[in-house]
Amino acid sequence: MVLVMYRFYVDQSQIGEQFITIKGTDVNHIKNVLRMRIGEKLVICNGQGKDFYCIIDRESKDEITVSIEEICDTDTELDGKIYLFQGLPKKDKMELIIQKAVELGVYEIIPVMTQRTVVKLEDKKKEAKKLERWQLIATSAAKQSNRGIIPMVSDTMNFKEALNYAKNMDVKIIPYEEADGINKTKEIIQSMKSNQSVAVFIGPEGGFEEKEIGQALEAGILPITLGRRILRTETAGLAILSMVMLQMEHE
Q1: What is the Cα Rg of the chain in Å?
Q2: Which domain holds residue 231?
Q3: What is the pLDDT averaged over residues 227-242?
């Protein structure tokens, strides 16, 4: 029988050499929902790839102190990093994309304003509020899927900024109707190494403009096909991420 320990995330500032302090809503969850007591074991993650195997040492009204028994690298992370450059979709589709992308192992999500983007984030206050909401979704998805890190949702970029941000990444791919056949796409995916950085560019509804595709190809981004079916923007990225994750996953 495998013992499954409960897992909680804390800020690095709460971690000492021998003890970790748990604060906030997790205190109530541990004490009153899970009914855990002094001496019971749990796992604390710092959101930066480290797991701390701990024992509950002290409890108070507002805090729980746990003693550190062992520190390990989180084993749920890929060796490499996947960056999703997502053309901003309409309505709440971005929330679904962020949630599922985090579950699939993405390292960072970059919202991108393209020529065919319908959503306009011109109000800085509204943009900041939306980014805060997206980061909360990423955090929640990371916790749910036992991620060792909490992927970042970056500030919105225009297409030129996105191309520049991705220029030093090892592999860069973009779905394109005029791409070579599926065998070429398989070849590109299968050539990826587990420790590489991979940029995935996905257009909004309506896809990328031809001019943007031209700019991407000039920047060294490889065109791929997703088959003979037309996928929605919220499906296309997740389909590619699934393929890339499987290729980069290690034993």
Answers
A1: 21
A2: 81-248
A3: 90
Let me know whether 66 and 97 are in one domain. no
3-state secondary structure of 229: coil
Name the pLDDT band for 117 (thresholds 50, 70, 90): confident
CA distance 104 to 16: 31
What torsion do the CA atoms of 236, 225, 121, 171 make, to the nearest 10 degrees? 100
How many whole angstroms separate alpha carbon 45 and alpha carbon 80? 20
Q: What is the average per-residue pLDDT within 14-18?
A: 93
Q: Collapsing DSSP states into helix, strand and coil, what is residue 120?
A: coil
Alpha-carbon distance of 132 to 137, in angstroms, equals 9
Residues 94 and 134 in one domain: yes
Q: How many CA atoms lie within 13 A of 203 on its CB side?
A: 21
Closest Cα partner for 243 from 186, 203, 162, 204?
186
Query: For residue range 155-181, what is the model confidence (pLDDT) as tens digits?
Result: 999 999 999 999 999 999 999 887 888
Q: Helix, strand, or coil here: 115?
A: coil
Mean pLDDT of 112-130: 82
The predicted model scores a pTM of 0.88
What b-and-e string marks burial along 153-190, b requiring 16 or more CB atoms within 10 Å of the CB? bbebbebeebbebbeebebbbbbbeebeeeeebeebbe
- How many domains are there within the chain? 2
Which one, of 9, 142, 149, 13, lies nearest residue 81 by Cα?
A: 149
- For residue 1, being part of any structural domain is answered with no
Burial 94-112 (b: 16+ CB within 10 A, else e): bbebbbbbbbbbbbbbbbb
> Residue 2 pLDDT more than 70?
no
Beta pairing, strands 152-153 & 50-59: unpaired
